[in-house]
Amino acid sequence: MKLSGSVICRVGFGISLDGSKLGNTYEEVIHGSMEVIGSFAATDYFLVIGRIIDRITGLHGKCERVFKAMDTFFDQSIEHHLENENIKDDIISLLLKMERGETGLGEFQLTRNHTKGILLNVLLAGVDTTGHTITWAMTHLIKNPRVMKKVQAEVREVIKNKDDITEEDIERLDYLKMVIKETFWITPIGPLLIPREVSKDIKIGGYDIPKKTWIHVNVWAIHRNPNVWKDPKVFIPERFMDSQIDYKGLNFELLPFGSGKRICPSIGMGMALVHLTLINLLYRFDWKLTEGMNVVLRYRDNTTHKTTLETHQANTFNQSSKNPRFLQDLKNKAHSPIYLTQHLV
Ligand code: HEM
After folding, report:
1. How far, in Å, from the CA of 5 to the mean position of ligand 1?
2. Which of 83, 66, 180, 167 is nearest to 123 (CA)?
3. Does the Cβ of 8 fall within 6 Å of ligand 1?
4. Cα-to-centroid distance, 268 and ligand 1 (Å)
5. Global pTM value
6. Among the four residues 64, 95, 216, 323, which has the most C-beta atoms within 10 Å?
7. What is the ipTM of this complex?
8. Tell me: the pLDDT tens digits for 281-314?
């Protein structure tokens, strides 16, 4: 989570969280918003009485606090750009150009609120999804030593003693690509996608669906359809060998990024981050399952760990971040020991 957050803030917002005053606000924003998104909101079901219930449960107040923290975070990030004119080529610079009318949007005038709305989308949609995909892939590998051995052998063979691992290397890692596809398939990060609202009365599968109905696409169930998938509960990356099925929204059997107009607009960045992180971890470390369901990462030269740091996170963006499914420690320095503890529920 911290890694994906840092990358997205660097690439999207042109800011480095490490040691910056934005780092603390960022933590509050991310954890707070995930908690709020994952909470039950009575207003979603009972418009009037729900507002009263949400005030009594404290959800309303929490939303207000998170919203203020988020607004401050975006204000500070934008200010940082306005003070440093040499920051270019990131999302904030582009949006500020659009606000000033330097980049054409036709008749549409972008305001500061639009800019903040877009930044909010990028931040919330990018950090958790990427972070949890990596964590799930690690979990499946730890639980499947056969696959772990095979993918690690492939990565070490292809990377050998290269200092820099680049996106070109990904193309040569066929089995890793299958492992990631299988991770998306068995544990999709958005199991119900983003809800759609029906714009007119329609019929789907023989059912009448009236205008304005919300539709949730159950990707989790689609990925487990025994008429389409063999062994739908087992982690077998080889199922994608010689298969044309891809995750880009055109094969409806596999929809980790959704499909249609609202498909994830950042598949490229998400996939690059997931691949490069896993390649680095598989290449540089041996992972070992210890007693008591702990997962320990060790350096290949057998250096032992020294420090532990804990972060709580949920496993999908449809669940509350209160769920302490994962406790993880990842000191992200090239030559410092890495130790990772995971509690499997
Ligand atoms: C492995 C990583 C990722 C996964 C699995 C993922 C998955 C998804 C899914 C399932 C949706 C909903 C699509 C639908 O309902 O049809 C979505 C939407 C979205 N994603 Fe991603 N995503 C990932 C990475 C990212 C990254 C890195 C960013 C931005 C930096 C991003 C930005 C967005 C945005 C802005 C939307 C909303 C699009 C809209 O509302 O039209 N995603 N993503």
Report:
1. 14
2. 66
3. yes
4. 11
5. 0.80
6. 95
7. 0.98
8. 999 888 776 666 555 545 444 543 332 222 222 2
